[in-house]
Amino acid sequence: MTTTPAYPRAADRRTGPHLAAGPDDLIRRFVREGDHVHAAATMSRPNALLNAVCRTFAGSRSLTVSTTAVHSSAHALALSGAVRKVITGFVGDTYPSPRPNRLYRELAEGRPFEMEMWSLLSYTQRLMAGALGQPFATTGSMLAETDLRHGKEGSLHLVPHPEDPERTVTLLSPLRPRLTLFHGVVADRRGNVVACPPLGEGPWAAYAATDGVLASVEAIVDDEVIAAMPDRVVIPAARVLGLCEAPLGAHPQSLRTGGLAGIDGYLDDYGFLTDIVAACKSPETAAAWYEEWVGGVPDHAAYLEKLGGKRRTELVFPAPPGGPAAAGRTAAPVDASAAPTEQEQLIVLGARAVADLVRERGYDTLLAGIGTSHMSAWLAARLLAEDGVQVQVAAELGLQSMDPEPGDVFLFSQRHAERSQMLAGVAETLGGAVAANPRCLGVLSAAEIDPDANINTTLLPDGRWITGSGGANDIASSVDCVVIAVASARRYVPRLTHLTSPGLRVRDVVSQFGRFTRTGAGAAFELTSWLPPVPGRGRTEADLPDGPEAAVRDLTGWDFPDASTGVGAFLTDEKAVTTEELSLLRTMDPEGFYR
User: Exposed, middle or buried by CB within 10 Å (0-12, 13-18, 19+), for 509?
Assistant: First the structure.
């Protein structure tokens, strides 16, 4: 347990930030029990600093932590017992695919900590309001119309529109942590911090912090090095209270450096991430993982020693010619002769639906939600490109005009960042490329979806936690959408357990056996295309429905008006999944994470 430190006086900062020996020294000096600490999220969360928070305040259950998402090594926040409350947009796992984590089964009941859930853009807008000194932010995300409104009586307000009394405007109170933790590429001793896009929430949390920033960087360099690249400084010296070196300070997440100051970037440690997911399957193995990598590690230097030089070298990116990482993702031939799985057929049908809508309606951007949805968006873009139709693919943390690298299925991989035409942040992507762009099509997944296409990604009927909104509410609130989800009576439900994202803008819902469409919001969905389903999720050939009416009846729980079967009068047959489609998909996913 730490002692309560004194706040730094203004006079103490005249010569620059406190230069700490490491993350633990920095946290012990500045953070105190009861603080609201923000972990800034680019694609490289300050994990070394968060590990230090967990070690320093273990068992205190005193801190409020805000961060865009709790996944991977941030599960240490729950395992340490350091945290009383988390303010976020996502709690679960993201690799190899998005899924619930057992640690949070009782999150809705306040265990292992209290939780305040926002959508990604509204969360960022709250930080922006704090950073700009504004009393409120406005948002177009439909929080008040969904169950995300609960528990936000003091933070979310509906007021009459000043130009149209029949409409309302949603106001959000600013989000202002006392301290913001940030991991950058390099900094000088004056405290200027350099970081490379994609920047996620960007510098907003640094300006929103009432007291300032505690920063870790890969290296502290001479002032002259930073002076030569002022355009790369993301956080100015005046905001930084304390600074330390922490090589691989974002591990197991990645860091893009652009080679600045000779610093190597590094990839997400997929093996480490997979080990965390496996460890969290039981309380005993989760506690053992925490003790091995966080609680039982004295400091970040010991953490790096435990990782070992070989593992660190394998993560270097871009890798030197002939290096292990350079050879790790070669385009090996794939076998497209095996029949598609249920999941693959779903992804292909989703890609066809997306491609058809792009051709028919002229969308210029696809916002790819994580999961089967982003696989369908990627595949659609490639199929369209082969027909000479260009559409840009974006991901919410700031990747735009993506050209995903074959073989890496993680939506937020630095490999994809290197192959993007633009790297920005949440505000530019979910705001500029999505909310302000009528030619954007959102591609989403769902844990539950009702007959009005409202989406649940938050709570299961038995009260277990799923993951939360992420950017889904923001996307569904502002642009036309396609939802891609395997049909089952538990997923296609008559009523949602929790309304996370509104369905007003959803045009099509794609299942593993065809596409549901409707004429507009409020109209009933009808199955308008049909491809016989294949075995999956415990079903054998003998269990499969023998036609479209049986599929809708047996594989959905939707209610249809006027005793309708849910099958459209002009049902068309989908062609079987082609070898070309399957080859493209398996080239993107050679390890079969989405099979």
Answer: buried
Residues 184-218 pLDDT 10s? 999 999 999 999 999 999 999 999 999 999 999 99
Q: What is the pLDDT of residue 149?
A: 95
Nearest-angstrom CA–CA distance, 64 and 218: 26
Cross-strand bridge partners of residue 180: 38, 213
Q: Which long-range contacts (CB under 8 A, 24 or more apart) does 225-230 make?
A: 225/186, 225/188, 225/261, 226/186, 226/187, 226/188, 226/190, 226/192, 226/194, 227/188, 229/194, 229/260
Whether residue 216 contacts residue 193, with contact meaning beta carbons closer than 8 Å, is answered with no
- Comparing CA positions, the residue from 343, 367, 223, 370 lying closest to residue 586 is 343
If you ran DSSP here, which 8-state letter would residue 255 be given? B
Closest CA to 127 of 66, 89, 175, 68: 175
DSSP structural state of residue 574: P
Three-state SS letters, 116-142: EECCHHHHHHHHHHHHCCCCCEEECCC
DSSP 276: H
Is 447 in contact with 497 (CB distance < 8 Å)? no
CB 484 within 8 A of CB 323: no
DSSP 324-383: TTTTTT--------SPPPHHHHHHHHHHHHHHHHHHHH---EEEE-TTHHHHHHHHHHHH
Whole-prediction pTM value? Answer: 0.94
Q: Phi-psi region for residue 527, left (φ > 0), alpha (ψ -120 to 50) or beta?
A: beta
DSSP-assigned beta bridge partners for residue 169: 159
Return the number of other C-beta atoms located less than 10 Å from residue 161's C-beta: 11
Q: pLDDT, tens digit, for every residue of 268-322? A: 999 999 999 999 999 999 999 999 999 999 999 999 999 999 999 999 998 766 5
Q: Which tokens go with 78?
A: 């729950």
The one-letter code for the residue type at 392 is Q
C-beta of residue 403 within 8 angstroms of C-beta of residue 377: no
Cβ neighbours around 188 below 10 Å, total: 21
Q: What is the DSSP letter of 38?
A: E
3-state secondary structure of 309: helix
Q: What's the mean pLDDT in 147-160?
A: 94
> pLDDT-derived band of residue 11, with 50, 70 and 90 as boundaries?
very low
Q: Tell me which residue of 541, 516, 542, 493 sits closest to 342, measured CA to CA.
A: 541
Rounded CA separation 192/233 (Å): 6
* 329 has a pLDDT exceeding 70: no
- 78-93 confidence digits (pLDDT tens): 999 999 999 999 999 9
Cα distance between residue 187 and residue 193, in whole Å:
4
**Cα→Cα distances 271→34, 253, 567, 593, Å:** 35, 11, 45, 14
* Confidence category of residue 573, pLDDT binned at 50, 70, 90: very high
Q: Grade residue 434 by pLDDT with cuts at 50, 70 and 90.
A: very high
Helix, strand, coil distribution of the chain in percent, nearest 5: 30, 25, 45
State the residue for tokens 């079987």.
576
SS3 of 113, please?
coil
CA distances to 111, 186, 429 from 465, rounded to whole Å, are: 11, 38, 27
